[in-house]
Amino acid sequence: MSTRRNLKYKYLKTKIALNETIQSILEINRKRRIFGNDRVHHQDLNEELKVLNAVAENQARSLRVYEQRLQNQGRA
After folding, report:
1. Residue 46 lies in a domain
2. What mean pLDDT is predicted for residues 16-36?
């Protein structure tokens, strides 16, 4: 597999993973509204949300790196 093709593959896989992570974050936000003021559920959801936000940040950072590398390879 060529370097460019491998990079495109990683880019697409990361983009898909980021979209799934974002959907999970949105689902947690919906659950937070449903549970109202239930502190136990809110605490669990907040912890899960922290982890998912960190994962999403890492995925977004990786996605930007892949985009830049693909653009640089396109120019070369």
Report:
1. yes
2. 94
Structural domain that includes position 8: 3-71
CB burial readout 5-44, b (16+ within 10 A) else e: eebeebbeebbebbeebeebbeebeeeeeeeeeeeeeeee
Write the pLDDT tens digit of every residue in 38-63.
888 889 999 999 999 999 999 999 99
- Give how many domains the chain has, as a whole number: 1
- What share of the chain has pLDDT > 90, as a percent? 71
Indicate whether 76 belongs to any domain: no
Token pair recorded at residue 76: 């070369």
CA angle 37, 41, 45 (to 5 degrees): 110
